Amino acid sequence: MSKQLNWGVIGAAGINGAVVPAIQASSTGRVVAIASRTQEKAQAAADKFGIPTAYGSYEQLLADKSIDAVYIPLPNHLHREWAIRAAEAGKHVLCEKPLALNAQEAQEMADACAKAGVQLAEAFMYRHQPRWERIKNVIASGEIGELRVLRGAFTFNGAANKGNVRFNADWGGGSLFDVGCYPVSAARFLLGSEPVAASAHALFSPEHDGVDMMLSGILEFPGDVALTFDCGMWADFRNFFEIVGTNGRIEIPGTFLPNGEEADFVVYSGGQRRVDKEPAANQYSLQADRFARSVWGEATPLVPPTDAVRNMRALDALMRSAREKARVTL
């Protein structure tokens, strides 16, 4: 058997339904333990996913010397504490997005992991789908001309579930952190640069603890290129991204959650339409494999701490703009 990375999961969040089976199906990893705030909840999750060990506290899991790395799917306000505690326990850390509540917290997490000599990566699973590198190559080839605007959306309607942790302001709730972070991350990756200004408008809902249930934003990038996007938790489901150039454009169907794991993209250029086919792949499994290889020194993380901190700076600026109703320079 090839070498394996032993994973522990800190928290019994719903996203585990996608991530845990994917780690187990990866070529490099196995989930050996899961922890929750109670033994009963941890055991139920362990039984559901076939995980050998269940811990009734996060501290117990971190004390398990057989665990190499932890996956943290906790509510946003707990990311910093448990990533730092995991690093201090010698565990590598894959943490759900957004990495923290703000850029300062993200930097503190990055510093703690660097000091401990462990890997830290933000769990933007979409980046591990190979089509993104191919899309970037199409842009670099000049086929669609000079870039003019990037446009994206990620919305769903979960407003009826008033007890959802996403609707807790103190816990880092809101649509920008939950789904808006995706188009922001994608734009930064595709352009290879950082935004210079941010403008945003948001619906802060009193029914949902005042979090942003909808947000529309503009990020200005060098070269007069912009990202325009909207995100929301109180709108019909949408999940798309478009890259518009002077001579063509690229559409990315099922951008962040590919339907049936298909990952085609469409190029319009010179009056022609071309579908670039990409084989189906589980982007969560690819994420686990890339992380393991980074732990072993065979690769670098696709979303390293430096990228996560910069993404948080953009999110910070967008939220400040929405609250102050003003353009914010970075």
UniProtKB/TrEMBL annotation:
Keyword Oxidoreductase applies: yes
Keyword Oxidoreductase among UniProt keywords: yes
SUPFAM superfamilies: Glyceraldehyde-3-phosphate dehydrogenase-like, C-terminal domain, NAD(P)-binding Rossmann-fold domains
Keywords assigned by UniProt, alphabetized: Oxidoreductase
Assigned protein family: Belongs to the Gfo/Idh/MocA family.
UniProt-recorded name of the protein: Gfo/Idh/MocA family protein
GFO/IDH/MocA-like oxidoreductase domain ranges (all copies): 133-251
PANTHER family reported in the protein's UniProt record: OXIDOREDUCTASES (PTHR22604), TRANS-1,2-DIHYDROBENZENE-1,2-DIOL DEHYDROGENASE (PTHR22604:SF105)
InterPro entries: Gfo/Idh/MocA-like_OxRdtase_N, Gfo/Idh/MocA_domain, GFO_IDH_MocA-like_dom, NAD(P)-bd_dom_sf
Organism: Cohnella suwonensis
Start and end residues of each Gfo/Idh/MocA-like oxidoreductase N-terminal domain: 5-122
